[in-house]
Sequence to fold (233 residues):
Amino acid sequence: MSKRRAIPLLGFSAAAVAGLAYVGWVRPWMLRWGATRSEARRSLPGDHLVPAPRTSFTRAISLRASPEQVWPWLAQIGCHRAGWYSYDQLDNGGHPSAACLVPELQNLGVGDEIWAAPDGTLAFSVYALDPGRSLVLSGPLDRTTPFTPGRTAFGATAALDPVRASWAFVLVEAETPGLTRLLVRFRADYPPNPLSSLAGALLEPVSFLMERKMLLGIKARVERQPPHDRCAQ
Fold:
């Protein structure tokens, strides 16, 4: 075989091996980072919102705190709130995520909006919450309406978006005393077309990096701060 033919063949082989490694190992690892097989398979609150998801992942982390101590950090998440404890330049308009509990953000209720983008073009609605146990956010996702402080008409505009999603944050007491497992599950369904499938595939690594950072950010705050450390008034 000539060298001219061998080089493209080697490149193709390397790409094929990399693709197989991503599909067979990297992607499964990303989709259930930190979660056990049983945690990834168990039924969680909000699963019924997207019964047949085209994309789904379950990630988890152990926290040295009780569920009641972790809950306030979940109750205040969101852009233009306490932040997502992730990459603030990307999901919080460059404002640092809160390093303490914000009392005025603790009264979260069903129907409240949680913004996931600084300009409000991506948002979730609180579908259900059980303080100390679970918080379920639901789509559809709104990519068209600019951010307006105090806006409440989320459902009317977002209903036009074909994406349906659920995002659940579940607190489970671990078998080890003093530990809590935080499980995060995202499920989404979208039109079965090549463009949507390609967008979903490209966003998977981004969502992994953002959510991993968020889980580690929650862990750092929960384990560093006293359980009732409030922001200065």
Confidence is low (pLDDT under 50) at residues 145-161.
